[in-house]
């Protein structure tokens, strides 16, 4: 594969820092997405709402999924936030922050679903965490 | 030519050009230096906003005024996007409504907006937006941060729990009062409004105590002392008047 902008874009990646990373099959793709989301959350300047709060919320959702505390509801919410943050953020940081999540969901969805299944099983044994009203 | 009325001039200045565009299928005309938001409002089309305030420089921070422009898959913040010839703008669609609702939810989840015990309950722009967009509950989890309240000023209170980081206080203090007491400290989810070099408001040496920041604050973050629940209503009308008077003087 040629290492240029167009070829990487075709694969759903970008040229630049962290555009290409080598890892083996033992890496959890949910944790990889969480790692990148933490980076984006830390780097967000905080000016616009979707990037400032959206990255923090997505990071929390990824933490819950990774820890086996999430259900299908959290996964659906994560996908929704990916769309909102990508479409409404002011600058390139927020617009591309959901990419690692979208990309790992596209290629390794079964890893998310395995975590969700664990979360659903745990939730069936307990009362679900309180959502609360506004 | 007859003499111009003292109110806002209806005719554009000779140097400015007029653009025609459609907003929500309505053919409208606007000066080329007007934003899509202003052009829409001039024609009675309302777009939800939070950080925007007539008389202050627009910053495009809240992202609630995002609109669709035909021919682009991107969305545009209408407060900072100028009109263009032949532009086809959609201000209200299912997609936009969905995004705006989520953005308001994100704001509610970020801090501790407990309306029931808030001095601005009933006079709050964030609350109004939630009602307008039909946000009855949150789908995102509350982040419940532990935030301080600065009540060191003799007349005003700064409650970080209600702040939405719209930067209206920062802008009105810098642009209108000229004191630049307010600023933003930190970044991302850790960003906070601060006075001077992050010292208590009461010990600020630059604050003139004019209270403009309190009046432009859209929520119960900056309020007057001595107000009980629901008692703090804001007066923002002074701002367009002030800027108009200054423009008249500089002409």
Q: Biggest chain pair contact, residues each?
A: A-B, 30 and 39 residues
Mean pLDDT of chain B: 93
Task: Decide which structural class fits the backbone of chain B.
Answer: alpha+beta
Query: Which stretches of chain B are poorly predicted, pLDDT < 50 over at least 5 residues?
Result: 1-7
H/I helix tally of chain B:
6
CATH homologous superfamily classification of chain A = NADH-ubiquinone oxidoreductase 51kDa subunit, iron-sulphur binding domain
Word description of this protein:
The complex is a heterodimer of chains A (134) and B (251). Chain A contains seven helices and no strands. Chain A is mainly α. Chain A has a single domain, classed as NADH-ubiquinone oxidoreductase 51kDa subunit, iron-sulphur binding domain (de novo design (two linked rop proteins)). The model of chain A has no long low-confidence stretch (mean pLDDT 90). Chain B is of the alpha+beta class. Chain B has two domains: 18-92, Ubiquitin-like (UB roll) (Roll), CATH 3.10.20; 112-235, Alpha-Beta Plaits. Chain B contains six helices and ten strands; from the N terminus they run ββαβββααββαββαβα. In chain B, the strands form three sheets. Chain B has a five-stranded mixed sheet, with helices on one face. In chain B, a hairpin with a 5-residue loop joins strand 6 and strand 7 (156-159). The two termini of chain B are 20 Å apart. The relative contact order of chain B is 0.13. Mean pLDDT of chain B is 93; it is low at 1-7.
């Amino acid at each position: 594969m040629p290492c240029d902008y167009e070829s990487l874009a075709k694969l759903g990646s970008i040229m630049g820092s962290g555009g290409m990373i080598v890892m083996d099959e033992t890496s959890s793709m949910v944790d990889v997405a969480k790692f990148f989301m933490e980076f984006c959350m830390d780097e967000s300047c905080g000016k616009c709402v979707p990037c400032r709060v959206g990255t923090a919320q997505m990071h929390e959702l990824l933490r819950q999924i990774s820890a086996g505390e999430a259900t299908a509801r959290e996964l659906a919410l994560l996908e929704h936030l990916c769309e909102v943050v990508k479409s409404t953020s002011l600058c390139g940081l927020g617009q591309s922050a959901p990419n690692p999540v979208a990309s790992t969901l596209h290629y390794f969805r079964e890893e998310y679903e395995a975590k969700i299944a664990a979360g659903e099983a745990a939730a069936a044994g307990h009362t679900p965490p309180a959502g609360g009203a506004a | 030519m007859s003499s111009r009325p003292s109110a806002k001039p209806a005719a554009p200045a000779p140097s400015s050009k007029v653009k025609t565009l459609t907003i929500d299928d309505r053919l409208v005309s606007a000066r080329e230096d007007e934003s899509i938001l202003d052009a829409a409002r001039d024609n009675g089309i309302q777009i939800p906003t939070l950080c925007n305030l007539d008389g202050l420089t627009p910053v495009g921070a809240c992202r609630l005024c995002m609109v669709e422009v035909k021919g682009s898959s991107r969305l545009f913040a209408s407060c900072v996007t100028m009109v263009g010839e032949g532009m086809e703008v959609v201000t209200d669609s299912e997609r936009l409504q969905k995004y705006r609702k989520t953005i308001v939810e994100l704001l509610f989840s970020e801090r501790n907006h407990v309306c029931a015990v808030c001095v601005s309950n009933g006079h709050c722009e964030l609350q109004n937006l939630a009602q307008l967009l039909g946000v009855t509950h949150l789908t995102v989890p509350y982040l419940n941060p532990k935030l301080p309240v600065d009540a060191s000023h003799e007349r005003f209170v700064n409650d970080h729990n209600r702040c939405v980081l719209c930067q209206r206080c920062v802008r009105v203090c810098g642009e209108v009062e000229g004191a630049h007491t307010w600023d933003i400290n930190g970044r991302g989810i850790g960003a906070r409004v601060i006075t001077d070099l992050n010292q208590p408001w009461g010990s600020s040496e630059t604050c003139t105590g004019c209270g403009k920041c309190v009046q432009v604050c859209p929520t119960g973050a900056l309020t007057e002392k001595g107000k009980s629940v629901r008692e703090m209503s804001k007066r923002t009308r002074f701002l367009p008047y002030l800027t108009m008077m200054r423009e008249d003087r500089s002409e």
